[in-house]
UniProtKB/TrEMBL annotation:
<keyword id="KW-0547">Nucleotide-binding</keyword>
<dbReference type="InterPro" id="IPR014729">
    <property type="entry name" value="Rossmann-like_a/b/a_fold"/>
</dbReference>
<dbReference type="Pfam" id="PF00749">
    <property type="entry name" value="tRNA-synt_1c"/>
</dbReference>
<keyword id="KW-0648">Protein biosynthesis</keyword>
<dbReference type="InterPro" id="IPR049940">
    <property type="entry name" value="GluQ/Sye"/>
</dbReference>
<keyword id="KW-0479">Metal-binding</keyword>
<dbReference type="InterPro" id="IPR001412">
    <property type="entry name" value="aa-tRNA-synth_I_CS"/>
</dbReference>
<keyword id="KW-0436">Ligase</keyword>
<keyword id="KW-0030">Aminoacyl-tRNA synthetase</keyword>
<keyword id="KW-0862">Zinc</keyword>
<dbReference type="GO" id="GO:0016874">
    <property type="term" value="F:ligase activity"/>
</dbReference>
<protein>
    <submittedName>
        <fullName>tRNA glutamyl-Q(34) synthetase GluQRS</fullName>
        <ecNumber>6.1.1.-</ecNumber>
    </submittedName>
</protein>
<feature type="domain" description="Glutamyl/glutaminyl-tRNA synthetase class Ib catalytic">
    <location>
        <begin position="12"/>
        <end position="278"/>
    </location>
</feature>
<dbReference type="InterPro" id="IPR000924">
    <property type="entry name" value="Glu/Gln-tRNA-synth"/>
</dbReference>
<dbReference type="InterPro" id="IPR020058">
    <property type="entry name" value="Glu/Gln-tRNA-synth_Ib_cat-dom"/>
</dbReference>
<keyword id="KW-0067">ATP-binding</keyword>
<comment type="similarity">
    <text>Belongs to the class-I aminoacyl-tRNA synthetase family.</text>
</comment>
Length: 294
């Protein structure tokens, strides 16, 4: 055992948190193995969370597919998986707290309006919200809320001022100074979905006692926002391990749009899961995305 006698050291808890919007592919398998092995090698727990908060893109058959694919790869998880769609009241309570603190505001803008805004500044993830709805007076806000669809955005400047300076720890980058302001007034509840990824993931990682977040480096920038939300909601800050993304022979990130086969495709093609998992553990990408042989 790694922590045999010191009960003050919390056991490691990691998670894999896919969105059931398609079948899992090799990039998911690589990420799941990283999170699973990180915990298991330290005698810890590995959790599965289904991030099914986007009603437009979630497909029920992919939820079953995720469990099937992980089991096929030999990755077992602890406890029943939680589904974000079953936790909407918990996210609503977190949003209410931010509303009570005056840190969010309703936003009525459409994507097209934001894109058309000549004044839209740019951040690491593209165009930043130009702040159109931030300055609405209380009466105008109330009148529009009564009749118009709206999401909720964080008032980033106020939130950053309230939280003060923040840092987080990343295994590769070391101590990182949180710079959420670079992402502007991000959406915390969407017009077309009850809650945003940022808020749900932050609330759930804390609720599930995740000590170490092992996920792809494509989510590194999101961590700045998650760190801020942790501070505003009084939640613990886990350690972060942003792993490199698996790339194909062409150096491109693996994703369905680049033609990476799903794990289900590989299984159907006769792939032995043990060989595939071993290759991924060594950081080897199956050549041409074909079947991995010994
Ligand atoms: N649900 C997210 C995705 O599938 C991952 C969330 C996370 O690991 O923080 O991209």
């Amino acid at each position: 055992m790694i922590f045999p006698s010191d009960s003050t050291i919390a056991p490691i808890v990691t998670r894999f948190a896919p969105s059931p919007t398609g079948r899992l592919h090799l990039g998911h398998a690589f990420s799941a193995i990283q999170a699973h092995d990180f915990s298991r090698h330290r005698g810890g727990r590995f959790l599965l969370r289904i991030e099914d908060i986007d009603p437009g893109r979630t497909r029920e058959e992919h939820v079953a597919g995720i469990a099937e694919d992980l089991a096929w790869l030999g990755l077992g998880w602890d406890s029943d998986p939680i589904r974000q769609s079953a936790r909407l009241p918990v996210y609503a309570a977190a949003l209410d707290r931010l509303k009570a603190d005056g840190l969010v505001y309703p936003c009525f803008c459409t994507r097209a309006e934001i894109a058309a805004s000549a004044s839209a500044p740019h951040g690491p993830a593209g165009a930043l919200y130009p702040g159109t709805c931030r300055g609405l007076g209380a009466a105008a806000r109330a009148a529009r809320m009564a009749g118009e669809a709206h999401g909720w955005r964080i008032d980033m400047a106020r939130a950053v001022a309230m939280a003060g300076p923040l840092t987080w720890h990343d295994q590769s980058a070391g101590t990182v100074v949180a710079m959420p302001a670079a992402q502007g007034d991000v959406v915390l509840a969407r017009k077309d979905a009850p809650i945003s990824y940022h808020l749900a993931v932050t609330v759930d990682d804390a609720a599930q006692g995740v000590t170490d977040i092992v996920r792809g480096v494509d989510l590194f920038e999101a961590t700045h926002v998650h760190r801020l939300l942790q501070a505003l909601l009084g939640l613990a800050t886990p350690r972060y391990h942003h792993h490199p993304l698996l790339t194909g022979a062409d150096g491109q990130r693996l994703a369905k749009r680049h033609g990476a086969p799903s794990l289900a495709d590989m299984r159907a093609a006769g792939q032995a899961p043990g060989l595939l998992a071993a290759a991924l553990r060594e950081g080897r990408t199956p050549v041409g995305f074909g079947v991995v042989q010994a």
